[in-house]
Amino acid sequence: MARGAVTGEVRVNNEDKTKKRLLWVSHLTRIRDNQDKAAFAELYAHFAPRVKGFLIKSGADASLAEECAQEVMATCWHKAHMFDPSRASVATWIFTIARNRKIDVLRKQRRPEPEELTWGPEEEPDQADVLALQQESELLGRALADLPAAQRDLIQKAYFGDLSHSEIAAETGLPLGTIKSRIRLALERLRHVLK
Amino acid sequence: MSNIKHHLTDDILMAYSAGTLPEAFNLMVATHLSLCDTCHAHLASFDAVGGEVLDTPDADIAMDTASFAATMALIAGGPTDEIKVTRPKGTLPAPLQDYVGGDLDQIRWKPVGLGVKQAILPTSKDASARLLFIPAGAAMPDHGHKGTEMTMVLQGAFQDDDDYFARGDVETADSDHFHTPVADIHEDCICLAVTDAPLEFKGLLPKIAQRFLRI
Fold first, then answer.
1. How confident is the model over A32-50, as pLDDT tens digits?
2. B72 in contact with chain A, both atoms CB, cutoff 8 A
3. Which of A95, B83, B115, B119 keeps 20 to 30 A from A104, CA to CA?
4. Which residue on chain B is closest to A51 by alpha carbon?
Protein backbone atom coordinates (compact mmCIF):
# COMPACT_ATOMS: atom_id res chain seq x y z
CA MET A 1 0.00 0.00 0.00
CA ALA A 2 2.52 2.53 1.20
CA ARG A 3 4.85 1.56 -1.60
CA GLY A 4 2.17 2.06 -4.23
CA ALA A 5 1.39 5.45 -2.79
CA VAL A 6 5.02 6.50 -3.05
CA THR A 7 5.27 5.33 -6.68
CA GLY A 8 2.11 7.27 -7.48
CA GLU A 9 3.58 10.35 -5.89
CA VAL A 10 6.80 10.02 -7.88
CA ARG A 11 4.84 9.69 -11.09
CA VAL A 12 2.81 12.82 -10.38
CA ASN A 13 6.03 14.63 -9.59
CA ASN A 14 7.55 13.63 -12.94
CA GLU A 15 4.44 14.68 -14.81
CA ASP A 16 4.65 18.03 -13.04
CA LYS A 17 8.24 18.42 -14.10
CA THR A 18 7.45 17.59 -17.72
CA LYS A 19 4.64 20.15 -17.50
CA LYS A 20 7.19 22.68 -16.32
CA ARG A 21 9.34 21.94 -19.37
CA LEU A 22 6.34 22.32 -21.67
CA LEU A 23 5.57 25.57 -19.91
CA TRP A 24 9.02 26.94 -20.86
CA VAL A 25 8.34 25.86 -24.44
CA SER A 26 5.06 27.79 -24.49
CA HIS A 27 6.81 30.79 -22.92
CA LEU A 28 9.25 30.88 -25.84
CA THR A 29 6.33 30.62 -28.28
CA ARG A 30 4.66 33.58 -26.55
CA ILE A 31 7.89 35.55 -26.75
CA ARG A 32 8.23 34.67 -30.43
CA ASP A 33 4.62 35.41 -31.41
CA ASN A 34 3.61 38.24 -29.06
CA GLN A 35 6.85 39.68 -27.67
CA ASP A 36 5.34 38.68 -24.33
CA LYS A 37 7.28 40.41 -21.56
CA ALA A 38 5.57 38.56 -18.71
CA ALA A 39 6.59 35.21 -20.21
CA PHE A 40 10.11 36.52 -20.70
CA ALA A 41 10.28 37.74 -17.10
CA GLU A 42 9.48 34.23 -15.84
CA LEU A 43 11.96 32.60 -18.20
CA TYR A 44 14.52 35.15 -17.05
CA ALA A 45 13.92 34.56 -13.35
CA HIS A 46 14.57 30.86 -13.84
CA PHE A 47 17.38 30.74 -16.37
CA ALA A 48 19.41 33.98 -16.02
CA PRO A 49 20.95 33.01 -12.64
CA ARG A 50 21.68 29.51 -13.98
CA VAL A 51 23.48 30.96 -16.99
CA LYS A 52 25.39 33.30 -14.69
CA GLY A 53 26.38 30.35 -12.49
CA PHE A 54 27.50 28.38 -15.54
CA LEU A 55 29.76 31.25 -16.61
CA ILE A 56 31.19 31.81 -13.13
CA LYS A 57 32.01 28.12 -12.83
CA SER A 58 33.62 28.34 -16.27
CA GLY A 59 36.03 30.97 -14.97
CA ALA A 60 34.28 34.34 -15.48
CA ASP A 61 34.28 36.87 -12.66
CA ALA A 62 30.87 37.88 -11.29
CA SER A 63 30.49 41.11 -13.27
CA LEU A 64 31.50 39.56 -16.60
CA ALA A 65 29.17 36.61 -15.91
CA GLU A 66 26.34 39.05 -15.11
CA GLU A 67 26.90 40.95 -18.35
CA CYS A 68 27.10 37.78 -20.46
CA ALA A 69 24.03 36.24 -18.82
CA GLN A 70 22.07 39.36 -19.78
CA GLU A 71 23.33 39.04 -23.36
CA VAL A 72 22.44 35.34 -23.48
CA MET A 73 18.91 36.09 -22.27
CA ALA A 74 18.55 38.91 -24.81
CA THR A 75 19.62 36.41 -27.50
CA CYS A 76 16.85 34.05 -26.30
CA TRP A 77 14.36 36.84 -27.00
CA HIS A 78 15.76 37.64 -30.45
CA LYS A 79 16.20 34.02 -31.51
CA ALA A 80 12.97 32.59 -30.06
CA HIS A 81 11.84 31.82 -33.64
CA MET A 82 14.86 29.51 -34.07
CA PHE A 83 13.94 27.26 -31.15
CA ASP A 84 12.62 23.81 -32.11
CA PRO A 85 10.97 22.05 -29.12
CA SER A 86 10.89 18.72 -30.99
CA ARG A 87 14.69 18.74 -30.97
CA ALA A 88 15.73 20.19 -27.62
CA SER A 89 14.51 21.30 -24.24
CA VAL A 90 14.57 25.02 -23.50
CA ALA A 91 17.41 24.37 -21.03
CA THR A 92 19.46 22.67 -23.75
CA TRP A 93 18.83 25.49 -26.20
CA ILE A 94 19.86 28.12 -23.66
CA PHE A 95 22.88 26.01 -22.75
CA THR A 96 24.11 26.09 -26.38
CA ILE A 97 23.69 29.88 -26.53
CA ALA A 98 25.55 30.30 -23.21
CA ARG A 99 28.28 27.93 -24.32
CA ASN A 100 28.84 29.84 -27.57
CA ARG A 101 28.97 33.11 -25.64
CA LYS A 102 31.52 31.54 -23.30
CA ILE A 103 33.77 30.64 -26.25
CA ASP A 104 33.45 34.16 -27.71
CA VAL A 105 34.02 36.09 -24.53
CA LEU A 106 36.03 33.92 -22.14
CA ARG A 107 38.16 32.08 -24.65
CA LYS A 108 38.18 34.78 -27.33
CA GLN A 109 38.04 32.26 -30.14
CA ARG A 110 36.01 31.84 -33.27
CA ARG A 111 33.44 29.10 -33.02
CA PRO A 112 33.14 27.16 -36.28
CA GLU A 113 29.55 25.93 -36.68
CA PRO A 114 28.49 22.89 -38.72
CA GLU A 115 26.42 23.27 -41.88
CA GLU A 116 22.63 23.18 -41.54
CA LEU A 117 22.66 23.65 -37.83
CA THR A 118 19.58 22.04 -36.34
CA TRP A 119 17.99 25.18 -34.86
CA GLY A 120 15.50 26.75 -37.21
CA PRO A 121 12.32 24.78 -37.90
CA GLU A 122 10.63 25.51 -41.20
CA GLU A 123 7.18 24.73 -39.89
CA GLU A 124 5.52 24.12 -36.54
CA PRO A 125 6.83 20.85 -35.11
CA ASP A 126 4.46 17.97 -34.40
CA GLN A 127 3.04 18.23 -30.85
CA ALA A 128 3.61 14.51 -30.22
CA ASP A 129 7.32 14.94 -31.06
CA VAL A 130 7.50 17.95 -28.75
CA LEU A 131 5.94 16.03 -25.87
CA ALA A 132 8.21 13.00 -26.46
CA LEU A 133 11.34 15.14 -26.50
CA GLN A 134 10.37 17.08 -23.37
CA GLN A 135 9.55 13.83 -21.52
CA GLU A 136 12.86 12.37 -22.59
CA SER A 137 14.64 15.47 -21.25
CA GLU A 138 12.90 14.96 -17.93
CA LEU A 139 14.15 11.35 -17.81
CA LEU A 140 17.65 12.52 -18.61
CA GLY A 141 17.51 15.19 -15.92
CA ARG A 142 16.39 12.63 -13.37
CA ALA A 143 19.04 10.12 -14.48
CA LEU A 144 21.70 12.79 -14.04
CA ALA A 145 20.41 13.62 -10.55
CA ASP A 146 20.39 9.89 -9.69
CA LEU A 147 23.98 9.26 -10.75
CA PRO A 148 26.42 8.39 -7.96
CA ALA A 149 27.81 11.69 -6.66
CA ALA A 150 31.34 10.99 -7.93
CA GLN A 151 30.13 10.47 -11.51
CA ARG A 152 27.73 13.41 -11.48
CA ASP A 153 30.43 15.64 -10.10
CA LEU A 154 32.79 14.81 -12.95
CA ILE A 155 30.13 15.34 -15.61
CA GLN A 156 29.38 18.77 -14.11
CA LYS A 157 33.06 19.63 -13.97
CA ALA A 158 33.48 18.62 -17.62
CA TYR A 159 30.64 20.96 -18.66
CA PHE A 160 30.88 23.78 -16.15
CA GLY A 161 34.54 24.10 -15.43
CA ASP A 162 36.74 25.02 -18.34
CA LEU A 163 38.74 21.90 -17.58
CA SER A 164 40.21 19.18 -19.70
CA HIS A 165 40.21 15.65 -18.33
CA SER A 166 43.85 16.02 -17.29
CA GLU A 167 43.09 19.30 -15.51
CA ILE A 168 40.21 17.58 -13.70
CA ALA A 169 42.75 14.92 -12.72
CA ALA A 170 45.00 17.59 -11.20
CA GLU A 171 42.10 19.24 -9.36
CA THR A 172 40.49 16.11 -7.94
CA GLY A 173 43.64 14.08 -7.42
CA LEU A 174 42.00 11.20 -9.34
CA PRO A 175 44.06 9.35 -11.93
CA LEU A 176 43.14 10.20 -15.53
CA GLY A 177 42.05 6.61 -16.24
CA THR A 178 39.55 6.74 -13.36
CA ILE A 179 38.09 10.01 -14.59
CA LYS A 180 37.67 8.72 -18.11
CA SER A 181 36.06 5.50 -16.96
CA ARG A 182 33.71 7.33 -14.55
CA ILE A 183 32.59 9.69 -17.28
CA ARG A 184 32.15 6.77 -19.66
CA LEU A 185 30.13 4.91 -17.04
CA ALA A 186 27.97 7.95 -16.41
CA LEU A 187 27.37 8.45 -20.12
CA GLU A 188 26.40 4.79 -20.50
CA ARG A 189 23.86 5.13 -17.72
CA LEU A 190 22.43 8.28 -19.28
CA ARG A 191 22.29 6.61 -22.67
CA HIS A 192 20.51 3.62 -21.20
CA VAL A 193 17.80 5.96 -19.94
CA LEU A 194 17.43 7.61 -23.35
CA LYS A 195 16.95 4.36 -25.26
CA MET B 1 23.39 10.06 -46.71
CA SER B 2 26.94 8.94 -46.10
CA ASN B 3 29.19 5.94 -45.79
CA ILE B 4 31.27 7.33 -42.98
CA LYS B 5 32.82 4.54 -40.93
CA HIS B 6 35.26 6.38 -38.69
CA HIS B 7 33.50 8.80 -36.36
CA LEU B 8 34.32 11.33 -33.66
CA THR B 9 35.10 9.89 -30.23
CA ASP B 10 32.88 10.53 -27.18
CA ASP B 11 35.68 12.51 -25.53
CA ILE B 12 35.89 14.91 -28.45
CA LEU B 13 32.12 15.29 -28.94
CA MET B 14 31.56 15.93 -25.24
CA ALA B 15 34.33 18.53 -25.14
CA TYR B 16 32.87 20.19 -28.26
CA SER B 17 29.49 20.30 -26.57
CA ALA B 18 31.03 21.71 -23.38
CA GLY B 19 32.94 24.30 -25.41
CA THR B 20 36.35 23.36 -24.05
CA LEU B 21 38.20 22.36 -27.23
CA PRO B 22 40.86 24.50 -28.90
CA GLU B 23 39.64 26.32 -32.03
CA ALA B 24 41.45 23.94 -34.43
CA PHE B 25 39.59 20.95 -32.94
CA ASN B 26 36.28 22.82 -33.03
CA LEU B 27 36.93 23.34 -36.73
CA MET B 28 37.56 19.61 -37.19
CA VAL B 29 34.37 18.70 -35.32
CA ALA B 30 32.22 21.27 -37.16
CA THR B 31 33.61 20.03 -40.50
CA HIS B 32 32.89 16.40 -39.68
CA LEU B 33 29.40 17.21 -38.34
CA SER B 34 28.64 18.92 -41.64
CA LEU B 35 29.00 15.53 -43.35
CA CYS B 36 27.88 13.11 -40.63
CA ASP B 37 24.28 12.74 -39.42
CA THR B 38 25.29 10.07 -36.89
CA CYS B 39 27.65 12.34 -34.99
CA HIS B 40 25.18 15.21 -35.34
CA ALA B 41 22.56 13.15 -33.46
CA HIS B 42 25.15 12.07 -30.97
CA LEU B 43 26.09 15.68 -30.30
CA ALA B 44 22.44 16.51 -29.59
CA SER B 45 22.51 14.10 -26.64
CA PHE B 46 25.69 15.66 -25.28
CA ASP B 47 24.05 19.09 -25.59
CA ALA B 48 21.04 17.67 -23.72
CA VAL B 49 23.32 16.64 -20.85
CA GLY B 50 24.74 20.19 -20.91
CA GLY B 51 21.20 21.56 -20.69
CA GLU B 52 20.46 19.46 -17.62
CA VAL B 53 23.75 20.48 -16.00
CA LEU B 54 22.92 24.14 -16.67
CA ASP B 55 19.43 23.70 -15.21
CA THR B 56 20.79 22.70 -11.79
CA PRO B 57 19.92 25.46 -9.31
CA ASP B 58 22.62 27.15 -7.24
CA ALA B 59 21.28 29.13 -4.28
CA ASP B 60 24.47 31.23 -4.03
CA ILE B 61 24.06 32.88 -7.40
CA ALA B 62 21.58 35.67 -8.14
CA MET B 63 21.33 38.33 -10.82
CA ASP B 64 22.07 41.96 -9.91
CA THR B 65 19.10 44.14 -8.92
CA ALA B 66 18.89 46.23 -12.12
CA SER B 67 19.61 43.20 -14.25
CA PHE B 68 16.20 42.62 -15.83
CA ALA B 69 15.79 46.25 -16.85
CA ALA B 70 19.29 46.20 -18.37
CA THR B 71 18.39 43.10 -20.37
CA MET B 72 15.18 44.70 -21.65
CA ALA B 73 17.28 47.66 -22.76
CA LEU B 74 19.61 45.27 -24.62
CA ILE B 75 16.59 43.71 -26.30
CA ALA B 76 15.28 47.14 -27.33
CA GLY B 77 18.66 47.74 -29.01
CA GLY B 78 17.95 44.87 -31.43
CA PRO B 79 19.92 41.74 -32.30
CA THR B 80 23.70 42.06 -32.49
CA ASP B 81 24.47 39.08 -34.68
CA GLU B 82 27.05 39.34 -37.39
CA ILE B 83 25.79 38.43 -40.84
CA LYS B 84 26.81 34.94 -41.94
CA VAL B 85 28.10 34.47 -45.45
CA THR B 86 26.33 31.59 -47.15
CA ARG B 87 28.66 29.72 -49.46
CA PRO B 88 27.77 27.42 -52.32
CA LYS B 89 28.24 23.71 -51.61
CA GLY B 90 31.65 22.45 -52.59
CA THR B 91 34.23 19.84 -51.67
CA LEU B 92 35.00 21.76 -48.50
CA PRO B 93 32.11 21.89 -46.00
CA ALA B 94 30.96 25.39 -44.99
CA PRO B 95 32.96 25.76 -41.74
CA LEU B 96 36.19 25.01 -43.61
CA GLN B 97 35.25 27.35 -46.46
CA ASP B 98 34.98 30.11 -43.86
CA TYR B 99 38.64 29.57 -42.92
CA VAL B 100 39.89 29.12 -46.50
CA GLY B 101 37.79 31.93 -47.96
CA GLY B 102 36.17 29.62 -50.50
CA ASP B 103 36.42 26.11 -51.87
CA LEU B 104 39.42 24.04 -53.07
CA ASP B 105 40.51 26.60 -55.69
CA GLN B 106 41.03 29.20 -52.94
CA ILE B 107 43.49 27.12 -50.88
CA ARG B 108 46.96 28.67 -50.84
CA TRP B 109 49.08 25.54 -50.98
CA LYS B 110 52.75 25.53 -50.03
CA PRO B 111 54.83 22.63 -51.35
CA VAL B 112 56.62 20.64 -48.66
CA GLY B 113 58.44 18.11 -50.85
CA LEU B 114 57.72 14.92 -52.80
CA GLY B 115 54.52 16.43 -54.19
CA VAL B 116 53.01 16.88 -50.73
CA LYS B 117 51.50 20.32 -50.11
CA GLN B 118 49.96 21.97 -47.10
CA ALA B 119 48.07 25.10 -46.09
CA ILE B 120 48.05 26.20 -42.45
CA LEU B 121 44.72 27.65 -41.33
CA PRO B 122 44.47 30.63 -38.98
CA THR B 123 43.32 29.35 -35.57
CA SER B 124 44.17 30.10 -31.95
CA LYS B 125 47.64 29.00 -30.91
CA ASP B 126 46.68 26.22 -28.46
CA ALA B 127 46.39 23.80 -31.40
CA SER B 128 46.97 23.93 -35.14
CA ALA B 129 44.92 23.09 -38.21
CA ARG B 130 46.15 22.54 -41.73
CA LEU B 131 44.99 21.15 -45.02
CA LEU B 132 47.19 18.48 -46.58
CA PHE B 133 47.48 17.48 -50.20
CA ILE B 134 48.99 14.02 -50.73
CA PRO B 135 49.48 12.84 -54.32
CA ALA B 136 47.71 9.58 -55.22
CA GLY B 137 49.75 6.63 -53.95
CA ALA B 138 52.20 8.74 -51.91
CA ALA B 139 52.96 8.23 -48.21
CA MET B 140 53.07 10.75 -45.39
CA PRO B 141 56.33 10.70 -43.41
CA ASP B 142 56.33 8.07 -40.64
CA HIS B 143 55.44 9.94 -37.48
CA GLY B 144 54.31 9.64 -33.87
CA HIS B 145 52.68 12.22 -31.60
CA LYS B 146 53.13 13.96 -28.31
CA GLY B 147 49.48 14.99 -28.18
CA THR B 148 46.30 14.17 -30.08
CA GLU B 149 46.12 14.34 -33.84
CA MET B 150 42.94 14.06 -35.88
CA THR B 151 42.92 13.66 -39.64
CA MET B 152 39.79 13.80 -41.79
CA VAL B 153 39.53 12.98 -45.48
CA LEU B 154 37.89 15.60 -47.72
CA GLN B 155 38.82 14.15 -51.10
CA GLY B 156 40.30 10.80 -52.16
CA ALA B 157 41.19 8.29 -49.46
CA PHE B 158 44.08 6.93 -47.45
CA GLN B 159 45.11 3.63 -45.95
CA ASP B 160 46.67 3.45 -42.49
CA ASP B 161 47.73 0.00 -41.31
CA ASP B 162 44.53 -2.04 -41.59
CA ASP B 163 42.10 0.85 -41.86
CA TYR B 164 40.80 2.62 -44.94
CA PHE B 165 39.64 6.23 -44.64
CA ALA B 166 37.43 7.91 -47.26
CA ARG B 167 35.60 11.25 -47.42
CA GLY B 168 34.25 12.21 -44.01
CA ASP B 169 36.18 9.54 -42.11
CA VAL B 170 38.24 10.77 -39.14
CA GLU B 171 41.33 9.11 -37.76
CA THR B 172 42.09 10.02 -34.14
CA ALA B 173 45.63 9.21 -33.01
CA ASP B 174 46.86 9.69 -29.45
CA SER B 175 50.44 9.91 -28.24
CA ASP B 176 52.75 6.92 -28.81
CA HIS B 177 50.80 5.92 -31.92
CA PHE B 178 53.21 5.59 -34.85
CA HIS B 179 51.62 5.42 -38.25
CA THR B 180 52.21 5.89 -41.97
CA PRO B 181 49.12 6.93 -43.89
CA VAL B 182 49.33 6.23 -47.64
CA ALA B 183 47.05 7.99 -50.13
CA ASP B 184 44.86 5.76 -52.30
CA ILE B 185 46.24 5.25 -55.80
CA HIS B 186 43.08 6.42 -57.59
CA GLU B 187 42.97 10.05 -56.61
CA ASP B 188 45.03 12.75 -54.91
CA CYS B 189 44.07 12.94 -51.26
CA ILE B 190 43.10 16.14 -49.45
CA CYS B 191 42.77 16.03 -45.66
CA LEU B 192 42.15 18.34 -42.76
CA ALA B 193 44.62 17.61 -39.94
CA VAL B 194 44.58 19.13 -36.46
CA THR B 195 46.97 18.57 -33.60
CA ASP B 196 47.52 19.97 -30.13
CA ALA B 197 51.25 19.20 -30.08
CA PRO B 198 54.08 19.19 -32.61
CA LEU B 199 54.37 15.88 -34.45
CA GLU B 200 57.52 13.82 -33.90
CA PHE B 201 59.06 12.38 -37.01
CA LYS B 202 61.38 9.39 -37.02
CA GLY B 203 64.77 10.07 -38.57
CA LEU B 204 66.84 13.21 -39.01
CA LEU B 205 65.62 14.61 -42.32
CA PRO B 206 61.98 14.79 -41.34
CA LYS B 207 63.06 16.46 -38.08
CA ILE B 208 64.65 19.26 -40.07
CA ALA B 209 61.64 19.41 -42.36
CA GLN B 210 59.41 19.72 -39.30
CA ARG B 211 60.87 23.13 -38.51
CA PHE B 212 59.76 24.38 -41.90
CA LEU B 213 56.46 22.56 -41.92
CA ARG B 214 55.50 24.03 -38.53
CA ILE B 215 53.82 20.78 -37.64
1. 999 999 999 999 999 999 9
2. yes
3. B119
4. B54
